[in-house]
Amino acid sequence: MGDILRIGRLELRVLDLEKSVDYYTNVIGLEVTGREGDRVYLKAWDEYDHHSIILQKSDQAGMDHMGFKVKDIYALEKLEKKIEQFGCTLTRSSENTRLAEGEAIRFKIPTGHYMELYTDIKQVGTRVGVINPHPWPDGLKGIAPHRLDHCLLTGDDLETATRFYKEVLGFHQTERITTVDGEVTIGSFLSCTNKAHDLAFVKGPDAKFHHAGFYVDNWYEVLKAADILTKHDVQVEVTPTRHGITRGQTTYFYDPSGNRNEAFASGYISYADFPTITWTEDKIATGIFYHRREMVETFSTSLT
Ligand SMILES: [Fe+2]
């Protein structure tokens, strides 16, 4: 593992804040940890930091930024220099720009999305604690994922985006989708941990958000997630199935603003020397939906 520890937070823009809080608490099963102005802060039960999801009231759905947590201030300063050298415009946000957060650096990545790196955030712990903990707390609601797991974004120049994440931020590429001749990258799956992906891109318009993936334990929990969605009358875009890419198990659905969410389980582990797996465009549907081997139309067109 390098200087970047993990995906730490996503700030999502939502249209109706109260409706969204109801969805993210009762259907997804996150806990509200703070509220200030037009923002509500939430975390999954198994996360120690103050929040991993920030809902920001807006007139347009989508992602404000993704934040990755860095191991310490020295690593943050080192990364800041490398990001500037790559040519990204960078700003520093001061402590308490948002609730419970310390300083962060904010910059635009080659696909036009905003990313933040930070090391300082208040740690609030979990309800099971860290001394002789039970495996899960009582009173969980909804899907109750362990954590925010990854996000998928769209962008045009995925070669440059991949180079930025590998060379500047120290990610490794676990998988890629290319045109059959291998010339153009149309999907790139990147990891800064030993997970199958922490961040992924598929070819599409710049600066758009495809989905946020929440981690659940296993295949049965993915099935149960879909049961919970139907119980709550939430639109399910893709019923439980398996990905070829990552080998994860999955179901996709939408939050009340149209931001896509995923309940994701399993997937292999990867190390820094993991050889990049290639999927060719003619097998893209098998890579994404391993059983049906057919694309779901909305899956590539519905973006926020
Ligand atoms: Fe995903």
From TrEMBL:
Its EC number is 1.13.11.2. Residues 6-120, 147-266 form the VOC domain. It comes from the Bacteria. CDD domains: 2_3_CTD_C. InterPro entries: Catechol_2-3_dOase, Glyas_Bleomycin-R_OHBP_Dase, Glyas_Fos-R_dOase_dom, GlyoxalaseI/FosfomycinResist, VOC_core, XylE-like_N. GO terms for molecular function: catechol 2,3-dioxygenase activity; ferrous iron binding. SUPFAM superfamilies: Glyoxalase/Bleomycin resistance protein/Dihydroxybiphenyl dioxygenase. Keywords: Aromatic hydrocarbons catabolism, Dioxygenase, Metal-binding, Oxidoreductase, Repeat. Belongs to the extradiol ring-cleavage dioxygenase family. Homotetramer. This is Catechol 2,3-dioxygenase. It comes from Bacillus aquiflavi.
